[in-house]
Amino acid sequence: MASIIDIQGLTKRYASGFEALKGVDLSIEEGEIFALLGPNGAGKTTMISIICGIARATGGSVKVAGHDIVRDYRGARDAIGLVPQELSTDQFERVIDTVTFSRGLFGKPRNPAHIEKVLRDLSLWDKRNAKILELSGGMKRRVMIAKALSHEPRILFLDEPTAGVDVELRRDMWKLIGELRQTGVTIILTTHYIEEAEEMADRVGVINRGELMLVEDKTALMKKLGKKTLTVVLAERLAAVPVELAEWDVTLKGDGQEIEYIFDTQAERTGVSSLLRRLGDLGIGYKDLNTAQSSLEDIFVSLVHQEKAA
Ligand SMILES: Nc1ncnc2c1ncn2[C@@H]1O[C@H](COP(=O)(O)OP(=O)(O)OP(=O)(O)O)[C@@H](O)[C@H]1O
């Protein structure tokens, strides 16, 4: 596949001296859904803002659909639809007017048929004459997407499309984004949620402290991220891990009151049931069991360790 966005050595130093991006290289392929995953303050919004021409890079280069974002700003910007984190639109305006107006901002000739298609695709056609303030939160978000698609961009950026929305709305949004990709538009979304990247993306980039730590196919990444921690709360304290448990690589926590076992949820055999059986055989009783998904934070820590080790 051909790349539609080419980022090389991208850096951003804010006036405060803070380095928000430290030399990012990335290619986005035409037609893919790319998720940029990272914790608060990682640099996701900074990166999108630069690509969309809202912020200026300190160094490096970005090409969008073959146009350099600085030398050929207009060509690059025309290819992009941006759905920002914050809902920003006139509350008193009618849906169809605000979407039509957005197209006009790009200097494109009127095209009522396209606006109608966008509104229909986003299930907003019935609401075209409603004022924005009369819409539900989910519909308002869809209006923002309609605005971003009004000038027929080849690339759609969604900055945290589901931040602060309930589970149901999140699922609707995922479905919608899946449908949008069928229209051929390349989609780049930022998110904090591993689950979101898992559900949507073809490829995932993990960014932390201004550095792109990895870019991988989703399936490969999920294998790495699909770790869980099982905590077994023991009935009685242990002084050390019994040798009979050596094959599970468990650690003793909580003053000897807990056994912790990290397992791969994607593996055919997680080792959980055999571990519990072995505990039973050894007469080691337990009061409670719980499992927790590795947090994004844990994953970053382990990624950093892996990088250092390499
Ligand atoms: N105008 C600014 N001046 C100085 N520092 C800034 C400015 N804008 C952002 N930063 C800093 O740059 C870093 C990256 O911010 P950015 O908004 O890109 O992160 P993000 O990954 O989008 O985070 P979030 O998930 O919270 O939106 C943060 O530490 C932020 O405080």
TrEMBL record:
Alphabetical list of SMART domains matching this protein: AAA
Q: Which domain of life is it from?
A: Bacteria
Q: Cite the PANTHER family for this sequence.
A: ABC TRANSPORTER ATP-BINDING PROTEIN
Q: Which GO terms describe its molecular function?
A: ATP binding; ATP hydrolysis activity
Please report the name of this protein according to its UniProt entry.
Answer: ABC transporter ATP-binding protein
The answer to whether keyword Disulfide bond applies is no
Q: Which CDD domains match?
A: ABC_DR_subfamily_A
The residue ranges of the ABC transporter domain are: 5-234
The keyword Nucleotide-binding is assigned to this record:
yes
Q: Which organism is it from?
A: Sphingobium terrigena
Gene3D superfamilies (alphabetical): P-loop containing nucleotide triphosphate hydrolases
* Keyword set, alphabetical order: ATP-binding, Nucleotide-binding, Transport
